[in-house]
Hints:
The chain starts with 5 loop residues before the first strand and ends with a helix. The protein has helices spanning 15-26, 59-72, 96-124, 145-165, 184-187, 192-197, 204-219, 225-234, 249-256, 263-273, and strands at 6-9, 30-35, 50-53, 78-81, 87-88, 127-132, 170-177, 189-190, 243-246. The chain has 10 helices and 9 strands. By secondary structure, the chain is α/β, with parallel strands linked by helices. The chain has one domain (6-273): NAD(P)-binding Rossmann-like Domain (Rossmann fold, 3-Layer(aba) Sandwich). The protein is 47% helix and 14% strand. The strands form 2 sheets. The protein has a 7-stranded parallel β-sheet with strand order 3-2-1-4-6-7-9, with helices on both faces. Strands 5-8 form a two-stranded parallel ribbon. The model has no long low-confidence stretch (mean pLDDT 93). The longest helix has 29 residues, at 96-124.
Amino acid sequence: MEEKKTIVVTGASSGIGNAIATYLAKRGENVIGTCRNPASRTGKADEFFDMIALDITRDDSVKTAFSKIFEGKKTVDTLVCCAGMGIAGSVEETSIEEAHLQMDTNYCGTLRTIKAVLPKFREAGRGQIIVMSSLAGVAGIPFQSFYSSSKFALEGLVEALRLEVAPFGIQVCLVEPGDFRTGFTDARVKVAAYLAGGEASPYSKGFEATVGQMEHDERAGADPIVIAKLIEKLLGKRNLSVRYGVGSIFQRLGVKIKNFMPSRLFEAGLKSTYHL
């Protein structure tokens, strides 16, 4: 029998992370999930895998969590970085503090977890790192500019990291989901200035149209089990591609043609999609 793989999934308490961790655990893999507060998860879907405390925005929490993980396991085969959050608002109305939170969580948080496993992977001469990006990391989405920025940053990080760690047998890739049906929709944070201003905001019409369309598309999106099945196919793959798009054909094709069409035409498509 093939030996079980040990997979660490961050952000495993909900959404895509939980779907991946649950699916892989049911398929017989040894899954370790992480979230900020495991105690609050009693009786939830993550009963199929172990869950440990990890706040990706804190260096000490990341260090403690991975010390515990590597202490209990001889090796970790794959790190799947899913932890993150989304902030919605215009560039003008988003405070520097809110922008910093978005980047510190999605970009720096992912970076912290990657740095935690690299020494062990390098020593072992193998390991996989799968980073959850987004189609919003390929095309900037209005009123999600800082979310898009955080995902664009991850795209650049992974492209460079792949070249640095390839000599050590470490594989790194991006997974770029489109719209999926998860709790991310309801968890999206609207910036404080917009909430305070409401209809008085000069951006209210565009904001409501865009975010309303996003929420509609996400709630009508596919089950994240589709992403979990993709991750399963990537486990142990000897040569990972840089990126894997997953979602509707329309969305995946839309971002693929971005670099092959006039920018004004691409922008016109986005304006039409989001009723701007």
